[in-house]
Specification:
With 263 residues, the protein is α+β, with helices and mostly antiparallel strands. It has helices at 18-28, 76-86, 100-109, 111-116, 122-125, 142-157, 171-187, 228-250; strands at 10-15, 35-44, 47-56, 60-67, 73-75, 91-98, 161-165, 190-203, 210-222, 253-262. It is elongated, with a radius of gyration of 22 Å.
């Protein structure tokens, strides 16, 4: 997200739980502010994430979440859900108060993220923030909460199948490669059931050295708003970028000659 250059009131501030984060938000939103943005670092299921959150005095305006290790980015409702999970554990926060003009400029500079973010009251993210505030989005019934928790637990138990058919010396790299593909596909709305990576070393003619040629097969289901051709294109681009980084790690050229996506 593009945000104005303003001075923080807190940097690297430790919030041990949701209540301490709520107290920081309330302190940042003084009578003189029109809103604020927060940079939040934390973990969900041992995975590190970096959140940028823009708010006015009552509601969330825009949110973006970056997967620190995988490099994928979430916006909108999935990002809000991840932030809620993150706040159940300690987080490190930078807090920046904004005046009303800076809030409007921030919206204009991040219009796509703003449009993709449900306009939710801050108390729905931080329940203890405003004791007298009126809910503008309905609470989820308790039964629904149980269903959501059950789905999350089932998701945690599910592990995609990873098949690696590569030379032994590059197997650890290929397995990490597969993990990154799974995370990126998930960020696009694809639930991956199986990833298969086949690779072999190829010696080039005329003493031009050798390289590793590989193919990637992905099977899963999609709830993405993107059509299949666009999904396949985005996943192909990601695998090519990852192959380039893998080439540097191995000291050999890694070429992905084919990506197959079956949904």
């Amino acid at each position: 997200m593009k945000l104005p250059a303003v001075q923080p009131i807190e940097e690297n501030y430790l919030c041990k739980n949701r209540e301490e984060f709520s107290a920081l938000v309330k302190r940042t939103l003084s009578d003189r502010t029109g809103g604020a943005f927060f940079k939040i670092f934390g973990k969900v299921d041992s995975e590190p994430y970096y959140v940028t959150l823009l708010v006015d005095r009552e509601k969330v305006l825009a949110i973006e979440v970056e997967d620190v290790e995988g490099g994928s980015v979430l916006m909108g409702k999935p990002a809000l859900e991840l932030l809620r999970d993150m706040l159940s554990s300690p987080v490190i926060v930078d807090a920046y108060p904004l005046n009303e003009i800076e809030v409007k400029l921030s919206i204009a500079d991040n219009i796509e993220i703003y449009k993709s973010t449900p306009k939710m009251l801050l108390r729905n993210v931080c329940p203890s923030l405003f004791s007298n505030a009126e809910e503008i989005s309905p609470k989820i019934p308790e039964k629904k909460d149980e269903e959501v928790s059950k789905k999350k637990e089932e998701k945690k138990k599910f592990r995609p199948e990873i098949i690696i058919n590569v030379p032994p010396n590059i197997e650890p790299y290929a397995r990490k490669f597969a993990d990154r593909i799974i995370k990126y596909a998930n960020s696009l709305g694809v639930t991956v059931k199986k990833v298969r990576i086949d690779a072999k070393e190829v010696r080039y003619a005329l003493g031009a050295g050798k390289g590793i040629h590989s193919t990637v097969q992905i099977e899963g289901t999609s709830k993405s708003h993107l059509p299949y051709p666009r999904l396949k294109e985005e996943i192909e681009k990601f695998t090519w970028r990852e192959a380039s980084e893998l080439s540097e790690a191995l000291g050999e050229k890694v070429v992905v000659s084919g990506v197959r996506l079956k949904l």
